[in-house]
Structure formats: C-alpha cells, structure tokens
Specification:
Layout: E1 2-5, H1 11-18, E2 24-28, E3 49-54, H2 59-69, E4 73-76, H3 82-89, E5 94-101, E6 119-124, E7 150-152, H4 161-167, E8 176-181, H5 194-206
Parallel strand pairs: 1-2, 1-8, 2-3, 3-4, 4-5, 5-6, 6-7, 7-8
Length: 211
C-alpha cells in the first residue's frame, strides 16, 4: 500500500511532508481550487513521485506543467477523454484517471480507459471536482470489474481509520494500491498537519499495510 499526500502548497510544509517519505505528492493546477499551486516545487527525494492534478485542461497546458515542474504523473479530475489520456501516456508519465462515486456507479464507463491510463482513482462525488471532505460508499467497489490497480480517495482521515482497516481486509480492496490523503489532514491555513499524518502512517505500518 502506498500513500499519496495531495493538495500541497507551502514550500516548508512540502519539505516537512517529504520527510514522511510518501510514494506520491500531489500539486493541484486547477485555478478554482483553494489549493491551487502557482509556485516552485522544492527539490524532493527521487523516490517521491510528483503528480499534477488537472480538471478539464488542454493537452498543451498539462504538458507545460509537466515540463516546468518535472512531474512524474498527472491526475485527471474532469471529463477528459481516452484520446487525451493516450497522448499523455506518450509523454512517458503516469496517467491517473479519476472517477467520482457516491452510493452507486456504472463501471462500464471505465472500459474506454483500460488501455490508456495506469491507474484509476475513485473519489467522492460532490459539489467540487475533488476535496469534498467526505467518503463515498466503499461497498460500491465490490462490483469493480477491472484488474487495474486503483487509488482510494475522498475524505480519508484519522476518524475513518477503523473503517479503512476493515475495508482493507475485504476482497474488493485487493487492487487498492494507494491511499490519497488531503483535506482531513489540514490545518485552517491549508497546511498539512505533520503530527496527524505521522500518526496515521504509523497505524498503517503497525497493521502491516505499508512499510
């Protein structure tokens, strides 16, 4: 199991989070987001992959951010097409396609993306494209038809840990490769709470889900 810490903004906070050694760190390039990133990403350890988060952006805009910030991957939160995903994969980067879920989901919509993205990410369907701050019904994933690994996102925080550990014991979690953490680990200043993240990480380590 990997961890992705998303919605990074402040340079010092980015460096503090990097000391926790997550597999991924996410930077949001969607101007309507309060976590919109418009600065310079400090140098990070090579084992931490930088993921750019986009919503209905053009190929040229995404490619520009990939090149400027040396991103290792992109996370697509909008109505992006399989054709766009294919063009992005040709850049030799990780492509993560996001799908939003609440209490039900038509998994047939995944089929056109099977060969053009590396991972799916399942987030909570809400008012915003992401960062809505609450979980969706994970039981929906019992019907997951693909063999593609997926990221689990949407309102995961310390209070959700017990439910998360139960989910990770169930068959539908077998292909869940990464937990995406964001708003539930923030202070009012949109900064990640290192103490909360470290405690959450330790409990997952103790439960043998991450190393």
């Amino acid at each position: 199991m990997n961890l992705k810490i998303c919605g990074m903004k402040n340079e010092n906070n980015i460096l503090d989070v990097a000391e926790l050694n997550p597999s991924y760190m996410g930077f949001i390039f969607y101007e309507k987001s309060p976590r919109y990133f418009n600065s310079v990403i400090p140098e990070l350890p090579e084992n931490i992959k930088k993921i750019g988060v986009f919503v209905n952006s053009t190929f040229d805009y995404i490619r520009g951010k990939v090149e400027k910030h040396n991103l290792q991957g992109v996370q697509l939160h909008g109505d992006e097409t399989p054709e766009l995903c294919s063009k992005l994969k040709a850049l030799d980067i990780i492509v993560i396609k996001v799908f939003s879920i609440k209490n039900q989901f038509n998994f047939n919509v995944l089929e056109p993306f099977e060969d053009v993205c590396d991972y799916y990410l399942f987030d909570t369907k809400g008012k915003e494209p992401g960062g809505n701050g609450y979980t969706f019904n994970w039981n929906v994933l019992k019907k997951y038809p693909s063999i593609k690994p997926y990221f689990l996102s949407g309102g995961i925080g310390p209070k959700e840990l017990d439910a998360l550990l139960l989910f990770l014991k169930r068959p539908e979690s077998e292909l869940c490769c990464t937990l995406d953490l964001n708003s539930k680990f923030e202070t009012a200043a949109k900064l990640k709470d290192i103490t909360k993240l470290k405690a959450f990480q330790k409990k997952l380590i103790d439960a043998n889900y991450i190393r």
